[in-house]
Amino acid sequence: MSEIKKNKKSYGDLQLLKGIDLVTRKTGVIEIKGIKKSYGDLQVLKGIDLVIREREVVTIVGPSGAGKSTLLHIIGTLDSPDEGEILYNDIDVARLSRAGLSAFRNRNIGFVFQHHRLLPEFTAIENVCIPAWIKGVGRREAEWKARELLQLLGLAERLTHKPNELSGGEQQRVAVARALVNDPAVVLADEPSGNLDSNNKNELHQLFFTLREKLGHTFVIVTHDTSLADMSDRQVHLRDGIIEN
Ligand SMILES: Nc1ncnc2c1ncn2[C@@H]1O[C@H](COP(=O)(O)OP(=O)(O)O)[C@@H](O)[C@H]1O
Ligand SMILES: [Mg+2]
User: Within a 13 Å sphere around the CA of 61, how many CA atoms are in the beta-carbon half?
Assistant: First the structure.
């Protein structure tokens, strides 16, 4: 923790990021305090307080329109709240500069969405490499890491396939590998199995828990799937912009 305190006082992004990278990779703790968010007259989040612990698998459930995606985007620093704070191991992400925040996200947070969002003209392994290339990892090292992850996810035979040559389940596993390539502390997923049939769905859900055991990630997953919610360590019920439980 003293490293964070020290780095909070640093002025350059680079120095700050060194600390962020070092500390958050060890402990994926997220503290969400008093988050409010409106779009025009519509108040979507009305004061959200939540602490997510290291290596926890938390699901966010609730009816459509409850604010689940909005909350996940704010947790993932893709959107900013009107009020409140998001702290990653004491680091207030609102204090980071634009460039600092992009780098923070690239290194510390992996995203999986309902649609895989793979780039169609790139192969599976290239798609997985992209966040590593953005981070500045060399080509060879990025490919080595991407191959290792794709093998772990059962895709060793699919490395050079393009997304349209993969099944829905395979596409989503490539998206998971892409989320993990920079060893983030935290993986955020928004309805990751929403487009999958029940076999692929169950396989993907099981994968999240295997990854938590093997690699120690913290997972925050928005889902409508009650079996995934039941498997998770904790369910957060969101309704009309507040946490019910
Ligand atoms: N960018 C936006 N602009 C305006 N309204 C939005 C925007 N994003 C979400 N909303 C509205 O906020 C509410 C909550 O949306 P969302 O967080 O996507 O809910 P959920 O993921 O729980 O279905 C909805 O009424 C939605 O229409
Ligand atoms: Mg949503």
Answer: 17
